Amino acid sequence: MVKNIAIAGVTGAVGQEFLEILEQRAFPVKSIKMLASERSVGREIVFRGRTYKVEQLTENSFANIDIALFSAGASRSKQFAPAAVKAGAVVVDNSSAFRMDPDIPLVVPEVNPQEIFKHKGIIANPNCSTIIANVPLWPLHKANPIKRIVISTYQAASGAGQAAMLELMQQARQILDDEPPVCRKFKYQIAFNLFNHDSEIYPNGYNAEEMKMVHETHKIFGCDDIAITCTCVRVPVLRAHSESINLEFTHPISPDEVRQLLEKAPGVSIIDDRINNRFPMPIDAGGKDDVYVGRIREDESIQGHRGINLWVVGDQIRKGAALNAIQIAEKLL
To answer: Which residue among 128, 197, 230, 232 is the active-site one?
Structure first.
């Protein structure tokens, strides 16, 4: 069924990825509205050979729109998504605005697609790091319930948008030219450096990104019993997040069993070549749909053969954001 589409935040990194994926996957678009903030109004964007002008995102932007893809930030989602729903659109929102609302589905299509059809006008896209972890963990959890998850993330600049990616490149040039690096998007130097994820630190000492991964995974899996702890770090990589994941299962499980489960899992590719020391890297995942898994090995510190370590890499802009939202939109069709 052909749909009228609106993209809110079209000039951002995820907004641009929306357009690329809609074209690549031949999504049935009847008409499309390019929406952004006032400063981008009039900018021209080409989609499927036709040039469109960016319009200002307002509460009146959604007449006759069937599906609205939002990646304009949480504050704009809270302001404008209800207006889109009131106009008759279904909103797929990429921000944190609605993720933990108990009345709004939080969806990874490979995990809980059934939740899509419980929507009341808004469907939330999870955090990028949550999506990248959940895609390979869900088939393992279904086969052998996971008791505990320990995640350390290595998050690319792309997670903070285009300005952050540009800052990484500019700082690298500045340092190599013996110039002082200029920090605008990030508080600290990102080139040739890494630091705690650039999100709010809560009273418990965890940052917001870490707690998002905990709470969102519980909601998506429909299971609050899993013990989850995270450490999220920003690293000088342009695109694609990496995650070191340690798992404790209810029953014994071997690396070979994990590998067999993941070989059949949707949205997962395995790169696990011990002989050549070849495992997933950000350059493997950049621009790709799948989440890549390697370093599949037993955690020998956990008794009873119930522990597994994984190394997981996924494109934050693609599967971690735009692709996941469009897969939800495809299910709506």
So the answer is: 128
223 among known catalytic residues: no
What's the count of helices (H) and strands (E) in the chain, helices before strands? 8, 15
User: What is the tens place of the pLDDT at every residue in 61-99?
Assistant: 999 999 999 999 999 999 999 999 999 999 999 999 999
The CATH number covering residue 303 comes to 3.30.360.10
Are residues 170 and 115 part of one domain? no
Q: Which helix (H) or strand (E) holds 84?
A: helix 74-86
Please tell me the distance from the alpha carbon of residue 178 to that of residue 172, in angstroms, as a whole number.
10
Element (H, E) at 206: none
Quote the Cα angle for 129-307-254, to 5°.
Answer: 105
**Set 218, 232, 241, 251: catalytic member:** 241
Name every residue whose Cβ is closer than 8 Å to that of residue 4 and which is 6 or more positions away in sequence: 29, 30, 31, 32, 33, 64, 65, 66, 67
Confidence of residue 253 (pLDDT cuts 50, 70, 90): very high
Q: Tell me whether residue 128 is one of the annotated catalytic residues.
A: yes
Structure tokens at 215: 């709470």
pTM to 2 decimal places: 0.95
Q: Which percentage of the chain shows pLDDT scores above 90?
A: 98
Give the pLDDT band of residue 135 (cuts 50, 70, 90): very high
Mean pLDDT for 105-128 is 97
If asked whether residues 110 and 146 sit together in one domain, one would say no
Domain containing residue 11: 3-125+321-332
